[in-house]
Write a structure and sequence with these properties.
The complex is a heterodimer of chains A (345) and B (284). With 345 residues, chain A is of the alpha+beta class. Chain A folds into 2 domains: 3-230, P-loop containing nucleotide triphosphate hydrolases (Rossmann fold, 3-Layer(aba) Sandwich), CATH 3.40.50.300; 236-344, Beta Barrel (OB fold (Dihydrolipoamide Acetyltransferase, E2P)), CATH 2.40.50.140. Chain A contains 8 helices and 20 strands. In chain A, the strands form 4 sheets. Chain A has a 6-stranded mixed beta sheet, sandwiched between helices. Chain A has a 5-stranded antiparallel beta sheet with strand order 13-12-11-14-20. In chain A, strand 17 (302-308) and strand 18 (311-317) form a beta hairpin. The model of chain A has no long low-confidence stretch (mean pLDDT 88). Chain B folds into 2 domains: 25-60 and 252-284, no CATH class; 75-238, MetI-like (MetI-like fold, Orthogonal Bundle). Chain B is built from 13 helices and 2 strands, in the order H-E-E-H-H-H-H-H-H-H-H-H-H-H-H. Chain B has helices at residues 13-36, 54-59, 62-94, 98-112, 116-126, 134-139, 153-178, 181-189, 194-205, 207-222, 227-231, 239-249, 253-283; strands at 40-41, 47-48. In chain B, strand 1 and strand 2 form a beta hairpin. In chain B, helix 7 (153-178) packs antiparallel against helix 10 and helix 8 (181-189) packs across helix 9. The relative contact order of chain B is 0.13. Classes of the chains: A alpha+beta (345), B mainly alpha (284). The interface between A and B is medium-sized, with 27 and 20 residues.
Chain lengths: 345, 284
Amino acid sequence: MSGLALNNVTKEFGTFTAVNNVELTVPHGTFVCMLGPSGCGKTTLLRMIAGLDLPTGGAIRLDGEDITHVPTHKRNLGMVFQSLALFPHLTVGENIAYPLRIRGVPKEDQKKRVDELLSMIHLSGYADRPVAKLSGGQRQRVAIARALSISPKLFLLDEPLSALDAKLREAMQVELRQLQQKLGITTIVVTHDQREAMTMADTVVVMKGGEIRQAASPIEIYRRPADTFVADFIGSTNLLEAEADSTGGVTVLGQPVSGVSLGGGVRKATLSIRPEDVHLTAPGNGALSGTVTFVRDLGGTIETFVDIAGRQLVAVSTPRARPDVTVGQPVGVVLLPDVCVVLAK
Amino acid sequence: MRREAPQKLSDYGPLFFPAMMLIVFFVVPFATMIAVSFFQRQQGGFYVPAFQFANYERFLSLFFANVLGFSLMLAVTVAICCVLLAVPFTYLLTRMTRKVQIVWLVALLSVLSLSEVIIGFAWSTLFSRTAGITNLLVMAGIMSEAKALLPSFGAVLTGMVYQAFPYTVLVLYPALVRLDPTLTEAARTLGASPIKAFFTVVVPALRNTITATLIMVFIFALGSYLLPQLLGRPQHWTLSVLITDQAIYQSNMPFAAAMAVFLVLVTLGLVALTVLAGRKGEAA
């Protein structure tokens, strides 16, 4: 199979299990974002793919070949570190040429490739500058070009954009995605920024406690989260406890609702509903009844906070669909079955 | 932080204390020595003020040129040996756990507490025929009979490297600890084996530190006068030995001062050359 495959990959540091039995297939040419809170094992997993850490169990295969114990320098990969790790004693051009020099590529071919890469990252003519003289964004691009100079089989990035300011980061996300699509290179990015993952990835892998909670396309992760952690971690959501009685009638927060089913045999579950899917109407008519506690008008969006039996729920709407509510007013909340995700307890 | 140039006299206040210290403990003694180097020696064992070049003229002989050459060669060899040993050693040390690092650093510091005399006698015992390390080799069956390894150039070199090694490690340690460990990791992901990564990334990134360390050990070794006498033959004696000999045993202060001044000038010249070469290498 062409691409990267992780089989039961495990990493233990003493008694602590950093990565636990991870199964993942990354088809050739896809862009994967590993997302999770700090300490979830995503960086350890990336370092094992790079060969900088050795797994204590399981196997890593690249294009069908077992590379679990192949030393890093023989894996032919490109990696961008969080610190960028540009070599301070080398110029921009020498940094980019480093992987070629190590492999004994002739000088003139090195120069050609460096010029090619510099024009790709829009830094033509910067070859002779010392890296210390570059701006944050430029250093970022040089690190990317250096990792790509041998056209690696695998392109790994560890929190590559975290040092940049918000505006530049957003621009670089788009640029990185476009570059990856142009080159068709298998890419794995570790990030804790869900916006970054949503922007760039074909597949988002959400991790927690050393385990993969869900691996799916960004929109599926958003629309169909596998559990409450994923639902809460990706975007913001309202999590509501629901109970079903023996006849299948569902109550949410103690109030009966119609049209929602928890599935056969399930008595207790959590409903996840995105704030933009919450519809506010007049009280009654089978809707949950609550009280408006606060309205946050941000201009572009309006957030309405509704208190239902002591639980706070947030509804987001656009100015066009501005709900006609004031603080303290009773309000009805409609749960549309097709936007409610039922999550097992 | 304030960046403008000092305006008033009081702005120079912070400089006063270090300047006084430098004048009292460096400028005055050094100036005295330069002055004495031009004085006339009195046969009775003292000297009278004069201005003559006789002391320097006497120095310009083949014998002293040889001694000077040997002293410089020995100091350079010691510096190179120390750096060659200490750079990989310190690099590996900084990659170890904190506990191991502390144990090693304490051990090195305890070597520093040994005086040159103790180091000299310890090594002369270790290199001796009756109680030396060759006896261990004989016991292990590697050598057929124990022999004395001193006096010899190798013994002098070993003793001096042993003495300077802790200093070298302590000077290199801060720079190596600060070196970003992801630099080596990056080199490895880019296709360099650990050894290649060490020589293409760690060593060049530490160029200035290594140069500075070489100069420090060189100057440190130049001042050594006990170890060459304890472990070497007279032809292994350094200029420092001759200076001590003239100053203390021959009571010829002016000549000793002249030799010391000359040694300082040659040393400064060599250091300046090294720094210049380093700058040129950087610009290229």
